[in-house]
Design goal:
By secondary structure, the chain is an alpha/beta fold. It has two domains: 180 residues, Medium-chain alcohol dehydrogenases, catalytic domain (Quinone Oxidoreductase, Chain A, domain 1), CATH 3.90.180.10; 138 residues, NAD(P)-binding Rossmann-like Domain (Rossmann fold), CATH 3.40.50.720. It is built from ten helices and 15 strands. β14, α10 and β15 form a beta-alpha-beta unit. α3 crosses α4, α3 crosses α9 and α6 runs parallel beside α7. It starts with a strand and ends with a strand. It comes from Motiliproteus coralliicola.
């Protein structure tokens, strides 16, 4: 089968930063699905892995979102049948989705929203799982809770921020402040449903205080190092900060007086460690699929680059690395 990957980590402008090659069809485990990939998306994790993680041997295939058609099922699969259309975020410990066929554990897969095409559906899983786990696992909220409280989303126009705003507004009572710095990103986060928009290139403290709001929850999605002092000043006592990026230094000691809680969110944890509740990702993606089909959530895709190829995938990686990506970029299958 065809796949796109690399043999040596490095910058996207290197001659062979991404290459197409032929490889063996995946072998299925008992709970695995073999999916014919019809759509993929690009996330920050794709560019981080490509730039920093060289293969132990041979080629490394990345790609952590997919939508496609089930072509084979493992001996113990219970949720899916051959021919069904599915979507999912994959497992970082296994080969990725930038290939014609892909093997994935059914417990992190859901049926694709019927109202979306394959590429557009592929723009949702990784960010939706991340946002859902932040709201309902890290923050410990239950659906319908949060009335009278505020969520501050730092980096609201990215993939995770775009769906996090929507989930918070549709499934909780939270008021949402989102940060954005350009006219187009400000318009985008308003479209996603943010109640208030502030500029993360200016003083977060001054802007939030001007709103006369005190966030109980903070989703630190980008540049946490730069904003952490402001987060600690703004957040309510006994508030909760959830982080998804990679801060170099994070001193949480100043949070003691406010009795703050801190969480890392890493949506690959359940699949990486085969946790006893791994099936929660199947369940939450099924809910997201239903909410999309009921028009309670909208697509966060802003750019479809066409068929998957070395050239189009390089374009997507380059734009993702630019720091100017809004929502999600997707590609069709080969």
């Amino acid at each position: 089968m065809k796949a796109i990957g690399y043999t040596q980590a490095g910058p996207i402008d290197a001659a062979e930063s991404l290459i197409e090659f032929e490889t063996e069809q995946p072998t299925l485990g008992p709970r695995d699905l073999l999916v014919e990939v019809r759509g993929i998306s690009v996330n920050p994790v794709d560019v981080k892995v490509r730039a920093n993680v060289s293969p132990e041997q041979g080629h490394k295939i990345i790609g952590y979102d997919a939508a496609g058609v089930v072509r084979q099922i493992g001996s113990e699969v219970i949720n899916f049948q051959v021919g069904e259309e599915v979507f999912y975020a994959g497992d970082i410990t296994r080969p990725g989705t930038n290939s014609e066929l892909h093997a994935v554990d059914e417990r992190i897969v859901a049926k694709k929203p019927q109202s979306l095409g394959f590429a557009e559906a592929a723009g949702l899983p990784l960010t939706s799982v991340t946002a859902w786990e932040m709201l309902f696992d890290a923050f410990g909220l239950k659906e319908g809770e949060g009335e009278g409280e505020t969520l501050l989303v730092i980096g609201g126009a990215g993939g995770v921020g775009s769906i996090l705003i929507q989930l918070a507004k549709q499934l909780t009572g939270l008021s949402v402040i989102a940060t954005a710095s350009r006219p187009e990103t400000i318009d985008w986060v308003k479209k996603m449903g943010a109640d208030h928009v502030i500029n993360h290139r200016e003083s977060l403290v001054d802007q939030v205080k001007a709103l006369e709001l005190e966030p109980r929850y903070v989703a630190a999605l980008t540049n946490t190092d730069d904003h952490f002092g402001a987060i600690l000043e703004l957040i309510k006592p006994r508030g909760h900060v959830a982080v998804i990026d990679d801060p170099q230094v994070l001193d949480i000691k100043p949070g003691k007086m406010k009795a703050l809680s801190f969480s890392w969110e890493f949506m690959f944890t359940r699949s990486m460690f085969q946790t006893e509740d791994i099936d929660k990702q199947h369940q939450l993606l099924s809910r997201v699929s239903s909410l999309i089909d009921k028009a309670k959530l909208v697509s966060t895709v802003t750019n479809n680059l066409g068929k998957l190829s070395v050239d189009t995938l390089k374009q997507a990686h380059t734009h993702q690395e630019s720091g100017r990506a809004i929502g999600k970029q997707v590609l069709e299958g080969f």
